[in-house]
Design brief:
Helix content: over 70%
Largest sheet: none
Number of helices: 8
Structural class: mainly alpha
Oligomer: single chain
């Protein structure tokens, strides 16, 4: 013998349906007005991204934020995952290039990838010698010599490089 469980009835009156429809229409109207105002504000992409980051910290869904701001979610994720503009290795390169070039010029082109790191250790710029220092010096020396060689070749015959 099965005992029938009482079913809780969910009843809506016509008045409840009317009230909910009215609230829904009002929210849709507010949403449309917000979309219109935001599209007319002419906010830059950077400002929109700042807003997305700010609202995402408050745990709002990113997809919804981007939709309200009229921005694609891929724009946000592209900005979030982008690589830094200046790498640490570029800063090191900018620091060492003039030093390497000056040592190379002082030796009248006789010092290369082996003797320049030794000179930098003697001066106290590099703490120790290791293979990474040699590779760094050789790479920077090759870059600067290649730039000079191209420039000299361009001055001697400007149409040969083109």
């Amino acid at each position: 013998m099965q005992v029938e469980k009482p079913v809780q009835e969910f009843s809506l009156t016509r008045r409840d349906v009317y009230d909910n429809q009215f609230k829904l229409e009002r929210l849709e109207l507010i949403n449309t007005i917000q979309h219109f105002v935001i599209s007319m504000l002419d906010i830059s992409k950077e400002k929109k991204l700042e807003l997305v980051y700010l609202l995402a910290e408050k745990l709002y869904p990113i997809k919804t934020i981007c939709r309200v701001l009229g921005m694609k979610t891929s724009t946000f994720y592209h900005d979030k995952n982008k690589k830094p503009e200046v790498y640490i290795i570029d800063e090191i390169d900018d620091e060492f290039k003039p030093l390497i070039q000056s040592i190379f010029n002082e030796s009248d082109g006789r010092f290369g990838g082996r003797k320049i790191p030794i000179q930098l250790v003697k001066v106290g710029i590099l703490p120790t010698l290791n293979i990474n220092n040699y590779c760094l010096i050789i790479r920077l020396l090759n870059q600067s010599l290649l730039e000079e060689a191209v420039w000299i070749m361009f001055l001697s015959n400007p149409f040969s490089v083109l």
